[in-house]
Amino acid sequence: MQEILELTAVDAGRRIADGEISGEECFAAWAAAAGGDELNAYLWRASAETDGRSSRLPPVAVKDIFCTEGVPTTAGSRILEGYLPPYTATAVRRLAGEGAHVLGKTNMDEFAMGSSNENSGYGPALNPWDRERVPGGSSGGSAAAVAGGLAPWAIGTDTGGSIRQPASLCGIVGMKPTYGAVSRYGMIAFASSLDQCGPLTRDVADAAMLLSIVQGRDPCDSTSVGVDGGVELPTREDLSGLRFAVPTGLDMDGVETGVRATLEATLSRIEELGGEVGETALPSAEHGISAYYVIAPAEASANLARYDGVRFGIRVDAPELDAMYEATRDAGFGPEVKRRVMLGTYALSSGYYEAYYGRAQRVRTRIAEDFRAAFEEFDFVVTPTSPSVAFGLGDKVDDPLSMYLNDYFTVPMPLAGIPAISIPAGLAEPDGGGPQLPVGFQIAGPAFSENAILDAAFALERAIGFDARPPSS
Amino acid sequence: MIDREQVLHVARLARLGLTEEEVETMSRELSGILEHVERMNKLDIEGVEPTSHVVDLVDVLRPDEPRPSWPKADVLEAAPDPAEGAFRVPSPQAEA
Amino acid sequence: MNEQRATSNEQLEAVIGLEIHVQLSTRTKMFCGCALSFGDEPNVHTCPVCLGHPGTLPVTNQQAVHFALMIATALECEVAPRSIFHRKNYFYPDLPKGYQISQYDIPLASGGRLGDVRIHRVHLEEDAAKLVHLGESGRIHGSGQSLVDFNRGGTPLVEIVTEPDLRGAAEARGWAQLLRTTMKQLGVSDVNMEEGSLRCDANVSLRPAGTKELGVKTELKNMNSFRFLERGIEAELARQRALLDSGEGVSQETLHFDPRTGSLTPLRTKEYAHDYRYFPEPDLVPLAPTEVMLAAARDALPELPGQRRDRYRDELGLPEELATQLAFEAELGAYFERVLAEATDGAEARAVANWVTGELAAELREAGEEDPGRVEPGALAALVGMVQAKRVTHGAAKQVLAELVAGGGDPAQIVEARGLAQISDSGELEAAVKRAIEANPEAAERVRDGNAKAIGPIVGAVMKETKGRADGGEVTRLIREKLGA
């Protein structure tokens, strides 16, 4: 059974197809592994008795933001405590269609708002590398599960970095595809123009496989287009002929020493592989945080209005309607959600729309233009994924802004709608001392360049040879 | 720069019942965030169109074909207070 | 609150605009595949999408867009090359998502006209669900509670907003009826005000006659019939006049009209109730009607009032004014078409038109009735035919018409029963003429002398004796003949 747990999803799939192992065995092995969750990675797990015979791929850990019919789905919030969706998200259905069933629903920051999983209504998830540290967020549970040997692969969602940043902090691969590549139907909405479903996996090949299964146009999602020609398994061996740009417009001042060193080392490795490294301005990207923290909360304030105690979810009773709404939402929403709903409502309110939302959407256009200009000269834009390695639980909870700045390098891509991957590039100590913790390297490409990104990441991953594992549980 | 009155007004709009303490904290925190957000004012956006849609699609339409609705029993099962085949709620205060 | 005060005792003119919601008769809802319902059990036509369950997304109904394009084209609007949906955010139990998907500053179409009224804009949106307040129906004695039925929620609506071109309550009613007929002709909606598939709100204000600036306007709601629309507007105009006369001034507010009492009650607006925080709907892509879509909308249009007027004028030979009246006055025009359809034996279009707009309209007013349909189209057609065939005189026919309006019937039978048949026997007529001349010697003398007008009493005498069964022209001719004048 331990052997099965060592296999990547691609390998396991091959062996199941070849008859070397059975789908049933594979499912059972992972269900048992997930049962040993000490990281609070899971909010729900498939029982060991689940019939795994129809598995053709290993089971997948699913962020609790995806609706799964008849299976509890909370989006990490108390307001959906006990909620059983009447339907299953398209991405999850597609995975099931390929024989990759739901292993469990993973912990997350409430309604995907956060970068540490500390905003979950069900307790934080823990980083397997150091259980006193955060796994990142908002897909913290998915990242912790994959990094901690509790799941072979996982899906999460990324709005401002919620797949890439936890992948970076947990030493695994995480990718946000182009906006529109994957259907959002069944993905509980946070920020509709930014949210995308994506893989969290052990390696780039698994990420490619998972993405190839979930991507595609869905008639239930008007904004879905899929990736033209589909997603292929990567094969690239070197990086010759490829041009990588580091954006000078993004400030490296807040980046930890260890992270910066890893970045430099990775850039050198790119050159060793035949890639060219240069610089590009991306002058508007530094305003990404500002724009993001207007647009995302604004859309969220509308998306979360449906949690009102009328048709589903919890209700706190009151004799009058507005009192019921207020009591229900007060009880159901955590502080970060309230903060963002307030921020978003304010940014859209009469007299403030142009100054905030209107302006943010224009800044967004500039950022997209900047990327387009960069991609005329370069194939990819590269950055550290996160300014720091995993920080301690409770370190940033009292300062929302410092928490938001975790997304500094990851927000420009969803704003521009472009894809980006984070791969583990090495280990480093945090500033001020501590254990060696994973550092992620981000590669972003033009819209619908998933295959190019996966190919480059694949070659780089091989060269880096990151094989560190969290201390065994 | 977002004062108590504004916080109360926005909380009403968003139907968030904030405690007095929360109102104070919110005022502080939101002001801090907005201060950072306003850095984007430095960027020149003269003549720049807002991004209202990210994908380059138009006219995504669905044929007018009915499909079965959700069974009523299931519809109401999720409801916090089902009654008489409908969703019961406390009445609104105003409105004729 | 905006206030307006009258400056002096000037003549005031009413300035009225209408905001109309048309429920489209598509098969499914605006953004999901649930069937539209008609008085079914609550919550049997719902799904996770129209119930606003987490993770659901809207997908636009193609037929709703087609119908909306038909409406925009029929109203001679300019269709926007690109329009988008917006979210209109507010909290209410009949709004499952906590926002309504509508259109805001980039609507489907704008700048059209129907009859004398300009159209400001036409846009698409989804309908809210239905909220029933308990304690009123008496069924459940839990006052302070409401029940929500989501069957209606998500039904496609087209909102039509006019410019404030209407100048009176009756005019507003007439135009609303024209709009209704037009929608009915398009086949895009049941447009039944009582059932709610046509809803009409009015924006009402007053200003000194002949000025251009708009006064403070109020919005009137809850008028669910054409009659109530007219009465509601009348009541509001009266209320505003009184306020301006007294120097108090009009406040901008939304009023609820109670047809039972005729009273107007302000809907209490909470200070935060009207900040809708509109922003572009990110879950839907823009509408950019293609040439194919526009052509399909154009081709689906039936004959519209303007075209009908032209046809009446050019093909039926009706004078311009009459053609316009029948083409644009919804009920009358529809009735005219029905009579024409029945007019197989000789009744000419022009005669029918005159009878419908003239004698019938007058008789209805006399009788205090409104619906021309009281008179079977076939019956009127037959009557007009009889007049043209000189089987009954114009005057006698009017008497027959009165009876048809009062109680219906068959014109030929009525003529028979009341002995109203036109006198065709020249002998009988000549005899009556002779008697009349003998009875009015002075008049006869004056006529002989060349005073044409003096013939009046003699004609009158003949008509009286024959009880209107004689043709007035024929009588006059005979008298003149006999008098050698």
Largest interface: A-B, 64 and 50 residues
Q: How many independent structural domains of chain A?
A: 2
| Helical residue percent band of chain B | 25-40%
Residue-averaged pLDDT of chain B, rounded?
92
CATH homology superfamily of the largest domain in chain A: Amidase signature (AS) domain
Q: What is the distance, rounded to the nearest whole angstrom, between the alpha carbons of the first and last residues of chain B? A: 38 Å
| CATH C-level name of the largest domain in chain A | Alpha Beta
Runs of chain A with pLDDT <50, length 5+?
none
Alpha carbon gap, first and last residue of chain A: 17 Å
Helix content of chain A: 25-40%
Assembly state of the chains shown: heterotrimer
Keywords for this structure?
heterotrimer, B: 96 residues, alpha+beta, two-stranded antiparallel sheet, 3 strands, 35% helix, C: 485 residues, Arc Repressor Mutant, subunit A, 3 domains, 9-stranded mixed beta sheet, 3-stranded antiparallel beta sheet, 17 strands, 39% helix, elongated
Fold and architecture overview:
The radius of gyration of chain A is 21 Å and the shape is globular. In chain A, helix 4 links the parallel strand 2 (60-63) and strand 3. By secondary structure, chain A is α/β, with parallel strands linked by helices. Chain A has an eleven-stranded mixed beta sheet, with helices on both faces. Helices cover 36% and strands 13% of the residues of chain A. Chain A has two domains: 2-289 and 357-464, Amidase signature (AS) enzymes (Alpha-Beta Complex); 290-356, no CATH class. Chain B is an alpha+beta fold and 96 residues long. Chain B is built from three helices and three strands; from the N terminus they run ααβαββ. In chain B, strands 2-3 form a two-stranded antiparallel ribbon. In chain B, helix 1 (4-13) packs across helix 2. The longest helix of chain B has 18 residues, at 20-37. Chain B starts with a helix and ends in a 6-residue tail after the last strand. The relative contact order of chain B is 0.07. The model of chain C is unreliable at 137-142 (pLDDT under 50). Chain C is elongated. Chain C has helices spanning 62-74, 169-186, 226-245, 291-299, 305-314, 320-328, 330-342, 349-367, 377-388, 394-407, 411-417, 426-439, 441-448, 456-465, 472-483; strands at residues 3-4, 12-23, 60-61, 78-79, 86-89, 99-102, 109-114, 117-126, 130-133, 145-149, 156-162, 198-208, 218-223, 250-251, 254-258, 263-266, 279-280. Classes of the chains: A alpha/beta (473), B alpha+beta (96), C alpha+beta (485). Chains in contact: A-B, A-C, B-C. At the A-C interface, helix 9 and helix 10 of A face loops of C. Strand 1 (61-62) of chain B pairs parallel with strand 3 (60-61) of chain C, so a sheet runs across the interface.
